[in-house]
Amino acid sequence: MSAAQTGDTARVVRINVAAAGGVPKSPVVAALLTAHGVAGDRQRDLKHHGGPDRAVCLFASERIAALAAEGHPIAPGTTGENLTIAGLAWHDLQAGDRLLLADGVLLEISGPAPPCRTIAASFIGGKFGRISEKTHPGWSRLYARVLVEGLVREGAPVRRLPRQAPGDAASV
Q1: Which strands form 150-153's sheet, in the order they lie side by side?
Q2: Nearest one of 106, 105, 55, 109 to 82, comparing CA atoms
Q3: Please, which pLDDT band fits residue 50 given cuts at 50, 70 and 90?
Q4: What is the mean pLDDT of the segment spanning 145-157?
Q5: CA nearest to 119, candidates 131, 102, 105, 104
């Protein structure tokens, strides 16, 4: 595995929250990640967003840059991600993968975050399906649950932990 695949060089490049909910989310230098979500962030639609399995929304800085290069009016926070991360092999991430952030904060990917019309302004012609996992695998935002809570700061290192075989005891 390369450094990018294991996350040895990965880092949080931006933390995004919206106190009133919705998008765009605005940058903050630090935020507390809890099992129930990101402190200072709110979701308006709790049927489709938030909760323990969707506590944190993640997106790759490299995917945002590539989409902007295609001409989409996208930027960090405009698609509702809480953590914009650089340096991970985004296309390899899947449900069950764990990410260790600074100060022992531990996230577990729960699955792709389906796009919705709320983020349409980030895409040419409102075509938010451009980041649908079903039609563009590896381009989706990802939801994560928080296994170990804590404060995360902009610039924090992110390390992808090796995958565990089913039935293995959880360890960091």
Answers
A1: 37-38, 30-34, 150-153
A2: 55
A3: low
A4: 97
A5: 131
Alpha-carbon distance of 37 to 47, in angstroms, equals 14
Q: Which two tokens stand for residue 130?
A: 């451009």
pTM over 0.85: yes
pLDDT at 44 (0 to 100): 58
| Secondary structure (DSSP) of 129-162 | GGG-TTTSTT-SEEEEEEEE-EEEETT-EEEEPP
How many residues comprise the chain? 172
Q: Report residue 124 as tokens.
A: 């040419």
Backbone angles phi, psi at 6, to 5 degrees: -85, -10
Residue 2: CB atoms within 10 A of its CB come to 8
- Tokens representing 46 are 């709790």
Q: How far is CA 7 from the centre of its chain?
A: 14
Residue with tokens 């992110």: 158
H or E stretch including 14?
A: strand 10-17
Distance CA 144, CA 98 (A): 9
Enclosing H/E stretch for 13: strand 10-17
Task: Report whether 106 contacts 100 (CB < 8 A).
Answer: yes
As a whole-number percent, the residues of the chain with pLDDT over 90 amount to 78
